[in-house]
């Protein structure tokens, strides 16, 4: 067939019949399009659309996992879980903005409170993800809301796990608390898979071991129709419970420590120097983990954050204090190291010490008279250490202080640990842009001035002394952390000497630490009474602030098993104020470990050792 | 006479009867899976439609063409009745009637327009050239009911009327001069016409057009029909999900499952294989209509059969492509398949016209 344009035009477009044939041609073209498209959609992309169809009818709701329990070293439960009712909103299914108002009036809470929840998470999550509005509903609230839920498809009530702290406020700083994750938390891959409303660790152990405690969310799957009405339940994936965590803490020591702190501001650290296990870690003022783990009002939160006595601060790991006379241990060791201290040489303390035009006084008016190192530590003679400090200079003292871990984080498994400051000439030039003045050395030698430490750092230092220069790595998780000791590298005889002196601080009747003395448990230690520039707590009557009290000690003397560091803010005299707190912790340790501590009665045939114990 | 027709059809066109019976059975089966009650009602409508078809077979098509203006006038009158007294349902005023026996005059307008246009293009049974007056008359006859129907609102049927009119104009051929002028004029007036059209469209009709441009823009909103329809078709696979496995239909994710999207339902249930069978049957019916037109010597028979062909061909293609997301959701039902009594009667009636032509044109 010759297909020149004219004949083509005639055949195709010339007559109605020809044009009708064109129409039929169009039909075959259209039909092929239909068939090809059908093939593409139905055969090639079948699995894709089948998955979409499944997604349509299967509604998946995540089930929050149960967080692991936290126990003390003997298995006493410190944190576990209980159920509570929580109200959720699915923003994409809410039909009218007025609905949240109805819900609020049912609950009897201001709308603004519910809106705050929606706005924080609802704006960053996809609109089909449920957002928790309010947790901890009372039965009355559940009842009232439940009656209205049939006309509020965007809202539902779900049972959620709730953190329960059975010992109420015990070890609050240590355990921390949980809370709903914030939009910021979503950036962390740790939280991305969790359903909203799941509690995540916000501080303390709860935060540090969050991934461990968290568990994996389960999935409830239901067949639903296009109106979201459930047709039947499908097999659900149960949530994986988080692993439970055993701490090194001994609840009995923790309880005693907190009870002895009473309502004074301070911290107690009890540490096993042989392996770095923390037996107690107390800080006061405290907060209630249970209260903070629930939704709380902004006013109450602000009250806690801005309280003058800083209840949210863990003073044991975050409080920075001048160590006072406890630091004399470091000065002594530095002197022995530098061969600038002869322990047997006698020294005359006249009560004053002069550097240039500055005169430093001893804490005891008139001085201690003639003494040597042993007595100087025992009675905490300042003039002796001023003199020694001037001879050593700041850099030598700082070097030894750093050897014992001061000025460095201990690496404890708690979030946001702080480290103190160990000043020396370089430090001062770098941070204060000024040279070191000779008059700054004597305060440093007795643990004042720029020097700051945390109670935990001091406990570790004392542990290293007790273990003859082997330093532990403090930790809270039992069994899985580093328990080996790191040698500091000082001669054994230095420690023997210092430890004997420390023993007499407590044992000798005129020792500053004598209030700590227990007849049945050999304790050695050092008191500290650190002058402070300002009062840390509320200062109502504008009096001159009292000194911070310290006692840091270990026991038993022969084979150290426990170090206790006590700090009382603005407590006054170290031995009298901090001492009894430490003593009671030691006493509890003795009571709970009496069987191990009392040596088995020697066979009658053997002769009694002279002196019996170390007393 | 009645027997003559019966034996003629059975003897000469058994394949046509098989195809028609197959499509009607598929229709009932699919509607049964959506809702058994609908299937029962549709079955009754199919019977009514077959009776009407039988009635149409009794009357020679020439007589129908002669009285085309009368028939057209009656149906147009009914459309005005709908405007004035129509029964409202789902926001649309399309029906008149008593009880559940409701009819949609708009559907009958399709048949009436085919007859009317056929009649107006002939003079004493002879084909006449297209004049401007003829063109304007035909246009008016199509546009007037189309506007009435579009305002019901029923965009689908209005579109079908305009398509039928276009088919006739195409067949008559437009002198190239007129074509050029109207093309330029049309292009010049397009923005104004579009503006007018757009402002007169109902919001859901606008949404459908928007959704067609980008179905994924709002999956739960306006593109919902298209997306759910494609998901339904796509989940069918080679052999379908079966009557009970078609989740898109059973869990009510596919709106209009019994009307505009009934083809999607069938495809989800019977898969690509089932769809091919259905397409084959429908294509045979269209081919039968086309053969009827091409084989008839009588211009009246040719135009009448062409109109029926155009109606079937475009109804079928537009609906299938709409279900598959190729065309926007314009609401054109699948002939012989979508639920609806009037549409079924019209579809069966128009097929009866084909047999009518074949029977009477032979003589």
Report the structural category of chain A: alpha+beta
Oligomer designation: heterodimer
CATH topology of the largest domain in chain A: Beta-lactamase
Low-confidence stretches of chain A: 611-615
Number of strands of chain B: 5
Main sheet: strand order of chain B:
1-2-3
CATH class of the largest domain in chain A: Alpha Beta
Distance between the termini of chain A: 127 Å
CATH architecture assignment name of the largest domain in chain A: 3-Layer(aba) Sandwich
- Shape summary of chain A: elongated
**Series of secondary-structure elements of chain B, N-terminal to C-terminal:** HHHHHEEEHEEHHHHHHHHHH
Q: What is the straight-line distance between the termini of chain B?
A: 13 Å
Topology overview:
The complex is a heterodimer of chains A (615) and B (363).
Chain A lengths: L4 H10 L1 H29 L1 H12 E6 L6 E2 L5 E13 L9 H9 L3 H12 L8 E5 L3 H10 L6 E10 L7 H4 L2 E3 L8 H4 L6 E3 L2 H5 L1 H5 L3 E7 L5 E4 L11 E2 L4 H11 L4 E7 L4 E8 L4 H5 L4 H9 L8 H4 L9 H10 L9 E3 L2 E4 L2 E4 L7 E3 L1 H6 L3 H22 L21 H8 L8 H5 L9 H12 L3 E2 L14 E2 L4 H16 L16 E7 L17 E8 L6 E7 L5 H19 L1 H4 L18
Parallel strand pairs in A: 2-10
Antiparallel strand pairs in A: 1-8, 2-3, 3-4, 3-5, 6-7, 8-9, 11-12, 11-21, 13-16, 14-15, 17-18, 19-20, 20-21
Helix pairs in contact in A: 1-2, 11-22, 15-17
Chain B lengths: L1 H11 L1 H21 L1 H23 L2 H6 L1 H18 L1 E3 L2 E7 L2 E3 L1 H16 L1 E2 L2 E2 L4 H19 L4 H18 L3 H25 L2 H11 L10 H11 L7 H4 L1 H4 L11 H34 L3 H25 L17 H22 L1
Antiparallel strand pairs in B: 1-2, 2-3, 4-5
Description:
The complex is a heterodimer of chains A (615) and B (363). Chain A is an alpha+beta fold. Chain A folds into two domains: 59-246, Alpha-Beta Complex (Penicillin-binding protein 2a (Domain 2)), CATH 3.90.1310.10; 251-300 and 309-597, Beta-lactamase (3-Layer(aba) Sandwich). Chain A is built from 23 helices and 21 strands. In chain A, strands 2, 3, 4, 5 and 10 form a five-stranded mixed beta sheet that branches. Chain A has a five-stranded antiparallel beta sheet with strand order 12-11-21-20-19, with helices on both faces. In chain A, helix 15 crosses helix 17. Chain B has 363 residues and is mainly α. Chain B has a domain at 67-201. Chain B has helices at 2-12, 14-34, 36-58, 61-66, 68-85, 105-120, 132-150, 155-172, 176-200, 203-213, 224-234, 242-245, 247-250, 262-295, 299-323, 341-362, and strands at 87-89, 92-98, 101-103, 122-123, 126-127. In chain B, the strands form two sheets. In chain B, strands 1-2-3 form a three-stranded antiparallel beta sheet, with helices on one face. A two-stranded antiparallel ribbon of chain B has the order 4-5. Chain B is globular, with a radius of gyration of 20 Å. Classes of the chains: A alpha+beta (615), B mainly alpha (363). At the A-B interface, helix 2 and helix 3 of A face helix 8, helix 11, helix 13, helix 14 and helix 15 of B.
């Amino acid at each position: 067939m010759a297909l020149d344009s004219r004949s083509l035009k005639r055949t195709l477009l010339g007559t109605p019949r020809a044009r009708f044939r064109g129409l039929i041609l169009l039909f075959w073209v259209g039909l092929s399009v239909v068939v090809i498209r059908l093939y593409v959609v139905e055969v090639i992309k079948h699995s894709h659309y089948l998955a979409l169809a499944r997604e349509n009818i299967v509604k998946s709701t995540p089930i929050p996992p149960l967080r692991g329990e936290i126990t003390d070293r003997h298995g006493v439960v410190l944190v576990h879980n209980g159920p509570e009712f929580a109200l959720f909103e699915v923003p994409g299914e809410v039909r009218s903005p007025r609905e949240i108002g109805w819900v609020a009036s049912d609950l009897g809470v201001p709308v603004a409170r519910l809106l705050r929840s929606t706005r924080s998470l609802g704006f960053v999550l996809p609109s089909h993800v449920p957002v928790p509005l309010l947790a901890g509903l009372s039965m009355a609230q559940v009842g009232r809301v439940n009656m209205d839920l049939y006309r509020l498809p965007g809202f539902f009530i779900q049972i959620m796990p709730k953190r329960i702290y059975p010992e109420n406020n015990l070890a609050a700083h240590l355990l921390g608390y949980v809370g709903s994750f914030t939009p910021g938390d979503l950036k962390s891959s740790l939280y991305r898979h969790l359903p909203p409303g799941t509690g995540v660790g916000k501080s303390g152990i709860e935060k540090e071991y969050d991934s461990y405690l968290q568990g994996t969310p389960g999935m409830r799957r239901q067949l639903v129709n296009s109106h979201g009405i459930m047709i039947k339940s499908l097999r659900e994936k149960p949530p994986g419970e988080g692993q439970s965590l055993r701490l090194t803490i001994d609840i009995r020591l923790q309880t005693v420590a907190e009870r002895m702190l009473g309502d004074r501001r301070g911290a107690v650290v009890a540490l096993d120097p042989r392996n770095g296990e923390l037996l107690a870690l107390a800080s006061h003022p405290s907060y209630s983990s249970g209260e903070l783990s629930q939704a709380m009002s902004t006013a109450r939160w602000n009250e806690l954050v801005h309280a003058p006595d800083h209840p949210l601060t863990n003073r044991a790991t975050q409080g920075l204090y001048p160590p006072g006379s406890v630091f004399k241990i470091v000065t002594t060791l530095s002197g022995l190291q530098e061969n600038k201290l002869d322990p047997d040489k006698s020294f005359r303390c006249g009560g004053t010490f002069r550097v240039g035009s500055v005169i430093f006084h001893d804490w005891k008016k008139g001085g201690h008279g003639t003494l040597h190192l042993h007595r100087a530590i025992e009675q905490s003679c300042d003039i002796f250490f001023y003199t020694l400090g001037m001879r050593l200079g700041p850099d030598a003292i700082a070097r030894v202080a750093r050897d014992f871990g001061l000025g460095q984080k201990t690496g404890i498994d708690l979030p946001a640990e702080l480290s103190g400051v160990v000043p020396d000439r370089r430090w001062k030039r770098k941070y204060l842009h000024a040279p070191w003045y000779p008059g700054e050395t004597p305060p440093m030698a007795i643990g004042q001035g720029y020097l700051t430490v945390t109670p935990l750092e001091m406990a570790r230092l004392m542990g290293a002394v007790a273990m003859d220069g082997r330093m532990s790595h403090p930790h809270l998780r039992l069994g899985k952390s580093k328990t080996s000791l790191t040698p500091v590298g000082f001669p054994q005889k230095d420690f023997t000497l210092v430890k004997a002196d420390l023993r007499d601080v407590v044992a000798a009747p005129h020792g500053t630490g004598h209030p700590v003395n227990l007849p049945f448990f050999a304790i050695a230690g050092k008191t500290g009474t650190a002058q402070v520039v300002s009062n840390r707590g509320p200062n109502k009557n504008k009096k001159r602030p009292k000194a911070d009290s310290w006692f840091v000690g270990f026991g038993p003397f022969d084979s150290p098993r426990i170090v206790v560091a006590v700090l009382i803010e603005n407590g006054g005299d170290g031995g009298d104020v901090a001492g009894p707190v430490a003593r009671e912790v030691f006493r509890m340790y003795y009571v709970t470990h009496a069987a191990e501590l009392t040596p088995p009665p020697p066979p009658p045939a053997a002769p009694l050792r002279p002196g019996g114990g170390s007393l | 006479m009645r027997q003559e027709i019966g034996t003629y059809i059975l003897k000469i066109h058994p394949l046509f009867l098989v195809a028609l019976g197959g499509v009607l059975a598929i229709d009932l089966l699919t509607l049964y899976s959506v809702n058994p009650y609908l299937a029962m009602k549709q079955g009754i409508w199919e019977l009514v439609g077959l009776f009407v078809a039988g009635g149409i077979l009794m009357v020679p098509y020439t007589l129908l063409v002669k009285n085309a203006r009368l028939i057209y006038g009656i149906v147009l009158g009914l459309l005005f009745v709908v405007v004035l007294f129509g029964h409202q349902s789902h926001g649309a005023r399309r029906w008149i009637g008593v009880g559940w026996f409701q009819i949609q005059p708009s559907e009958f307008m399709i048949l009436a327009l085919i007859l009317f246009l056929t009649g107006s293009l002939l003079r004493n049974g002879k084909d006449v050239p297209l004049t401007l007056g003829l063109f304007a008359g035909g246009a008016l006859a199509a546009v007037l009911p189309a506007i009435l129907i579009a305002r019901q609102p029923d965009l689908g049927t209005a579109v079908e009327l305009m398509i039928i009119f276009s088919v006739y104009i195409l067949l008559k051929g437009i002198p190239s001069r007129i074509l050029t002028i109207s093309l330029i004029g049309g292009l010049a007036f397009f923005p104004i016409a579009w503006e007018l059209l757009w402002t007169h469209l109902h919001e859901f009709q606008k949404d459908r057009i928007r959704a067609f441009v980008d179905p994924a823009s709002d999956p739960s909103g306006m593109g919902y029909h298209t997306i759910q329809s494609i998901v339904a078709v796509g989940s069918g696979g080679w052999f379908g999900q079966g009557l009970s496995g078609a989740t898109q239909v059973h869990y009510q994710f596919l709106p209009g499952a019994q009307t505009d999207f009934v083809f999607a339902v069938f495809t989800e249930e019977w898969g690509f294989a089932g769809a091919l069978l259905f397409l084959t049957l429908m294509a045979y019916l269209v081919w039968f209509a086309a053969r009827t037109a091409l084989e008839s010597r009588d211009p009246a028979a040719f135009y009448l059969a062409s109109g029926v062909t155009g109606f079937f061909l475009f109804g079928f293609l537009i609906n299938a492509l709409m279900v598959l997301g190729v065309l926007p959701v314009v609401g054109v039902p699948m002939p012989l398949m979508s639920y609806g009594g009037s549409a079924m009667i019209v579809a069966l009636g128009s097929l009866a016209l084909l047999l009518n032509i074949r029977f009477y044109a032979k003589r």
